[in-house]
Amino acid sequence: MPISAVHKEMSFIGVGVVYLEVIGSGTGLLNIGNVSQLVYAFDEEKQEQRNFMTPGGGNANVISSISSFTGSMTLVDYTPENLALALRGSVTAVTAGEVTDEVHNSAGTDGELIPFDFPADHSESITVKTAADAALTLDTDYTISSTGIVVIGDGSIDNTGVKITYTKSVGAIVEALVESGQEFKLHFDGLNDAQSGKPVAVINHRVKISPTSGLGFLGSEFAEIPIAFDVVSDSSVTGTGLSKYMKIVQAA
């Protein structure tokens, strides 16, 4: 490892954007939004031979190798794509438009939530009918919540079901745990805020992302998506002195 004869102060505060590309997708590197942390770690496998020749002990020799190269990110944007990334899920786009007579089962129980199938535009009208097409009345038969209607027990909703008409908002639907683990290229497009914004890039040629260890949807603080990944060897990287795992490019 080269050591410079002249020390130069190179403190580091990193800011920037993390990009991911599904290997083989042809989409190119895509911005995953606000990431508050990008950290790497190594696990070492070590064999030690004790020095039995002196009473003080110590080691006569040590052999070590890297057993794993891992990383972690903290995502703070709850985009559908990031949720799918964390949950090995799929994303289906929802376009704006009217949903007419969306059919739902009901129990007719007071306080029962009957969810919409799509995100609703609450600035547009929402109407509800019985299964027999009899009009139902807001605040008499039901109230409207953020994601559906809530049954009023003394009203006219029973166990025969309802039909709901509303306008969809632009959005997305994420289905969790429907995709196998994908492989990504990772590129940190950053700068060193402690060195007047000099550019720095971190490239992982091939990473495998694990499902998130936790995902919060209710609380009083900003939610985060913790992501862990393994950095694995990329056989397509060839050449003397070239790492199959990671490259760092920075301005001096």
Describe the structure.
There is one protein chain. The chain is built from one helix and 16 strands. The chain folds into two domains: 14-49 and 60-91 and 179-250, Pnp Oxidase, Chain A; 96-169, no CATH class. The mean pLDDT is 95. It has one helix at 80-87; strands at 14-22, 30-31, 35-50, 59-75, 90-94, 97-104, 113-115, 127-130, 142-144, 148-151, 162-168, 171-175, 183-192, 198-209, 225-231, 246-250. With 252 residues, the chain is mainly β.
Number of strands: 16
Biggest β-sheet description: 8 strands, antiparallel
How far from one another are the termini?
18 Å
Instruction: Specify the number of helices.
Output: 1
Percent of residues in β-strands? over 45%
The radius of gyration computed from the alpha-carbon positions, rounded to a whole number of angstroms, is: 28 Å
- Corresponding CATH architecture of the largest domain: Roll
Write the CATH fold name of the largest domain: Pnp Oxidase, Chain A
Question: What proportion of the residues is helical, as a percent range?
Answer: under 10%
Uncertain segments are none
Oligomer: single chain
* Silhouette: elongated
Mean pLDDT: 95
